[in-house]
């Protein structure tokens, strides 16, 4: 009883509340001032034709096409989320710091540990808000979509407010979708943790040297600590999925034209591993190319086939597929009968589209996107997760690209 009273007295204090409100207010003001630059950064990631332009030119383009509100689209929910996020983080950090304070004062190691714990608490509490914010920010990134793509985009980005987005995602995609980015966010907790540790260490150094902690000094210390944290944690943001066994070994078509069946097979391998098997398997399992050769309608074995028809076959069978080990050996020759020994399907959606740029905005809304490009410019999208470029010849070897 005495222990809980002491913890309550240290955790729920006026000083901790002031730290939390100050941190939240500072972050909100900073974001309000620099939000147009953040909008440009986001647009560069999903739109073509802007990379070679200056910041001023890009701002002018957005204002001409979308009005002044275009550069501030999504600001309100971002500020709400940012305020909540920083309030939770600073309250957690300073509250924990007060609870675990000692007579020996503070140390860099203790600050790093407490900042990490505060970061984890912040991620768990506020991730749903950032999921909605990321989607809302892309509402204006239409680029040069066709009518069908604009229809798809309108269906995806229809949130009127932060609360509306939270409710809509919960109803249409389930509660798990609200925390879909939790794992990568937890990995990146190290960034603010290191930043805060360096900041506190520099601040203590200034106090030791008798340097007054003015607003300018605090700003400089914050900038230095952020740069150090970004440099140290940047490698965590770069992932090569080849090192995670995301892709299966390259398939050998032999002296044959059956490579048309490789594309949909490898797409389904990546989607299956990304959505389902990665939780229970460490390596993506090979699916049967021979199964598609035997079962898809427009298939002539070594003489060619239709990738789109193969994808349509997978749609008709509810995205069910056969493991290579459970089907007939690969011969590239179409058998007279189709062996439908299928495994349970993964959480995959398929539809149609005609625009490659659409995939760039979709990657913001879905954790995994798989594309199959070829040498031709025509593109068809299968729903919200798989894109496939139409083949003009059965001799064209297609390539699978997966990205988060």
Textual characterization of the structure:
The protein contains 15 helices and four strands. The chain is mostly helical and 404 residues long. The protein folds into two domains: 2-187, Mitochondrial carrier domain (Mitochondrial carrier fold, Alpha/alpha barrel); 241-403, Alpha-Beta Complex (Cathepsin B, Chain A), CATH 3.90.70.10. It has a four-stranded mixed sheet, with helices on both faces.
Adjacency order of strands in the biggest sheet:
2-3-1-4
User: Pairing-aware structural class of the strands and helices?
Assistant: mainly alpha
The fourth-level CATH homologous superfamily of the largest domain is Mitochondrial carrier domain
Give the overall pLDDT as a whole number. Answer: 70
**What count of helical segments does DSSP give?**
15
Low-confidence stretches: 141-157, 276-280, 343-347, 373-404
If classified by CATH, what would the architecture of the largest domain be? Alpha/alpha barrel
The figure for the number of domains is 2
Sequence of secondary-structure elements: HHHHHHHHHHHHHHHEEEE
> Whole-number radius of gyration?
26 Å
Number of distinct beta strands: 4
- Remind me, CATH topology of the largest domain? Mitochondrial carrier fold
Q: Gap between N and C termini, in Å?
A: 48 Å
Helical content stands at 40-55%
Q: At the first level of CATH, what is the class of the largest domain?
A: Mainly Alpha
- Which overall shape is indicated by the principal axes computed on the Cα atoms? elongated
């Amino acid at each position: 009883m005495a222990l809980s009273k002491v913890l309550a007295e240290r955790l729920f204090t006026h000083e901790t509340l002031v730290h939390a409100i100050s941190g939240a207010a500072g972050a909100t003001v900073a974001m309000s001032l620099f939000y147009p630059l953040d909008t440009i950064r986001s647009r560069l990631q999903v739109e073509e034709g802007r990379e070679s332009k200056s910041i001023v030119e890009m701002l002018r383009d957005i204002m001409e096409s979308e009005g002044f509100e275009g550069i501030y689209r999504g600001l309100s929910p971002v500020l709400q989320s940012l305020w909540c996020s920083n309030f939770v983080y600073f309250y957690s950090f300073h509250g924990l710091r007060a609870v675990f304070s000692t007579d020996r004062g503070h140390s860099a190691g203790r600050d790093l540990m407490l900042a990490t714990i505060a970061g984890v608490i912040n991620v768990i509490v506020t991730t749903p808000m950032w999921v909605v914010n990321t989607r809302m920010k892309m509402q204006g990134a239409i680029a040069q979509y066709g009518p069908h793509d604009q229809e798809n985009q309108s269906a995806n980005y229809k949130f009127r407010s932060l609360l509306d987005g939270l409710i809509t995602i919960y109803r249409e995609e389930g509660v798990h979708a609200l925390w879909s980015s939790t794992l990568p966010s937890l990995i990146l907790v190290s960034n603010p943790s290191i930043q805060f540790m360096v900041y506190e260490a520099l601040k203590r150094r200034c106090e030791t040297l008798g340097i007054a902690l003015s607003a300018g000094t605090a700003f400089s210390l914050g900038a230095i600590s952020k740069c150090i944290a970004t440099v140290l944690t940047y490698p965590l943001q770069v992932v090569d999925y080849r090192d995670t066994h995301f892709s299966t070994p390259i398939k050998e078509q032999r002296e044959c034209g059956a490579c048309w069946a490789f594309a949909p097979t490898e797409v389904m391998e990546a989607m299956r591993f990304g959505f389902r098997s990665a939780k229970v398997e460490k390596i993506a399992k090979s699916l049967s190319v021979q199964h598609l050769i035997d079962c898809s309608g427009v298939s002539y074995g070594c003489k060619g086939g239709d990738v789109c028809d193969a994808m349509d076959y997978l749609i008709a069978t509810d995205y069910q597929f056969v493991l290579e080990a459970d089907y007939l050996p690969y011969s590239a020759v179409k058998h007279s009968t189709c062996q439908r020994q299928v495994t349970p399907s993964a959480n995959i959606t398929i539809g149609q589209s005609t625009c490659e740029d659409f995939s760039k905005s979709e990657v913001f809304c879905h954790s995994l996107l798989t594309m199959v490009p070829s040498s031709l410019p025509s593109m068809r999208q299968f729903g919200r997760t798989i894109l496939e470029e139409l083949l003009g010849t059965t001799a064209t070897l297609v390539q699978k690209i997966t990205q988060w």
